[in-house]
Amino acid sequence: MSKPRLSYFGGRGLAEPIRLLLKDAKVEYEEVNLGTAANGVFPEAFLALKASGVLDYGSVPYWEENGLNLVQSFAISRHLARKHGYNGENEAEAAKIDSVVEGTRDLVMAIRKVLTVPAEQKAQTWQEISKVDIPKWFGFFEALLKKSGTGFFVGKKASLADIYVIAYTEEIRCLDKSALASFPLLSAHLDAMFARPNLAAYAADPNAIPSFARLWHKNNNNK
């Protein structure tokens, strides 16, 4: 294999932090779009990959690199962070980076509640998430940025912590442009990260994989 390869469904989702890190670090890689699952029906490309036995837990994203085959988004992200300089300057920073990343994962779990309720309850559930869960976690992230004082969550340069936070704050901003209004440091952090040349180019790419948040918002507003 001449280039590493990332396989995932046709949306950002769990693979987006991986993509953002790879883009920011100028890592050349191939991406396999496995299609989109709908109403519990998975695309043939994913089912074929799963049947091949290479997915240790039967799930994606799936990363292939010089004989190394990895699943689980956090394992892939941490591997790439260590390899490309996004894991801090020492063990203490690495531990703090992991803590921030785990915080974003808790935020995502809270948001995913909207996917588990009946269609008629989704709007109300999203309102509850918007008023309670998102402000709570955005408040935590705002406080961490203030404590750091460097413009980054940990240390003096971009790390996996920054990558994970922007992946999901951007998703939320797609759904609600006012979500960051009360969090100036977090809003400035998101803008600054996407002003980095490689991330700016990625964000402006018309062929970039669409946001799950944008698709969900579009589908629910068209009903």
UniProtKB/TrEMBL annotation:
Xref: SUPFAM superfamilies: GST C-terminal domain-like, Thioredoxin-like
Keyword Ion transport attributed: no
InterPro entries documented for this protein: Glutathione-S-Trfase_C-like, Glutathione-S-Trfase_C_sf, Glutathione_S-Trfase, Glutathione_S-Trfase_N, GST_C, GST_superfamily, Thioredoxin-like_sf
Sequence ranges assigned to domain GST N-terminal in this UniProt record: 2-88
GO BP: any one term: glutathione metabolic process
GST C-terminal domain mapped to chain residues: 90-212
Molecular functions (GO terms): glutathione transferase activity
Sorted UniProt keywords: Transferase
Pfam families associated with the record: GST_C_3, GST_N
Domain of life of the native organism: Eukaryota
UniProt name for this protein: Glutathione S-transferase
Species the sequence originates in: Physarum polycephalum
The organism's taxonomic lineage, starting at the top: Eukaryota, Amoebozoa, Evosea, Eumycetozoa, Myxogastria
